[in-house]
Each structure stands twice: as C-alpha cells, then as structure tokens.
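Narrative summary of target 7.
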Amino acid sequence: MTQILIVGATSAMARGCAFAWAAQRQRLLLAGRDRDELERLAADLRVRYHTTVAVTDIDLDDPSPRDAWLEALETEHGHVDGLLLAAGWMPDGDAMRRGEPALRVLQRNLTGPVALLNAFADRCEQRKHGFIVGIASVAGDRGRQSNYVYGAAKGGLAIYLAGLRNRLAAVGVPVLTVKPGFVDTRMTFGLPGLFLVADPFRVGEVIVKAQAAGRNEIYVPGFWRLILLIIRNVPEFIFKRLKL
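Modeled conformation, tokenized:
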C-alpha cells in the first residue's frame, strides 16, 4: 500500500483528499499544527475505512530545511510515497497590506512549503519514486487588489511546482498543481462576493483522480480554467480600473 503524507491535513480540501485516499485503503500520515484535530480526523478515517492513519506535527511558519524532519518521520512510520501540500492561510485584504501579516502569508503559503517540498523532492529524485500534489490557487493567475499578497504567494508556489515538475519528469515522479476556485472552507467562510462555491469533498475526489491519472495541472471546479483565461487576457489598462 502507498503511504501518503498530507500537510495541512485539517483543511477542508485536504480532508476531502484524505477521505478519497482512505476509501482506497491507502496509508495516511496527517500533518499539521492542531494535534487534537488531527487525532480526531485520524480516528474518524480509521473507523470509516479500516486503514492505517498516523499523525505528526509540523509548522510551516518555521522555514528551516526539512531533511531531518522527513528522515525522522520515515524512521518512525516507514517510507513516504506521496506528498499532498494543502496548507495555506489568507487573512482579510486589509490585514494582508500590512507588514507582519503580509510576511506571514508569504511564509505559510510559499517559503515554508518550498522548504518541505525541496527536501521531499530530493528523496523522490534519489529513489526515482513518489508523487507530489501542491494546492495553489486561481488567485495566483493574476494580481488583484483584494488579495494580491496571497495571490503572489500562490502564484509563486505554482511556478515553483512547474519547475519541480520539469525537474522530476526525468525520474518519473509526477507533480500535480491544483488551482482551486471558491471552495467551501474556513478560509472562505463569510467572504463577500463569492459565487459557484464548491464542495471540498467533491474537490478532494477530483484531486485524487487527477493525481492517479498523472495530470500536470488542474483547475477545480474545471470551469475556472475558462474564467481565468478571460481574466488573464483583459488588457492591463482596463484591468487596473476593475474592482476585483
């Protein structure tokens, strides 16, 4: 059985993926900062699907290299075959324009994830085995005044994942970039102007199927690909006057 490490496992989309993989009897390692919530999720998955689920702590606000962390994790729990990077954080737009929250957005959505992905990619390259799934965002496709710091972090992550995909293709290790639109999560709850909000468990099923099919990049739900194609092609002299 494959063992999959899910980082940011208590997020809604990560839960959707965890349920989909657990239904396939995959072994799961749930990682995050809220140990109590991780334990509750793990217990639920064990009861529902009779599969092996373990939990571990990680804080992506710490940018240190993750080689030793992964080594200790595999010593305790065995070989990790795949990694889902689902952690993220988006405060309100006003907060993101200030110094400390802006830096924390970049840390939690880009530099922290990159430190972990660098270490895991090295192991995949050495073994010529594994897979990576990274949750970016449609917000990273074009900067908008409402969330451009978050968009910059997620856009940077998408570019990083594209480069990683290029690098690891030579050893047969697939890298999937996921760009969700509006999904019903704690991050989006109560935000104004949301439309076509997707069920996170359905999104999780789509992500798991896309990974199994060897896809490179997906928008979820799929209609966001067309929406972002239009947004990316609005001329800048018009776009900069829009309230988005």
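Residues 79 and 168 are 19 Å apart (CA to CA).
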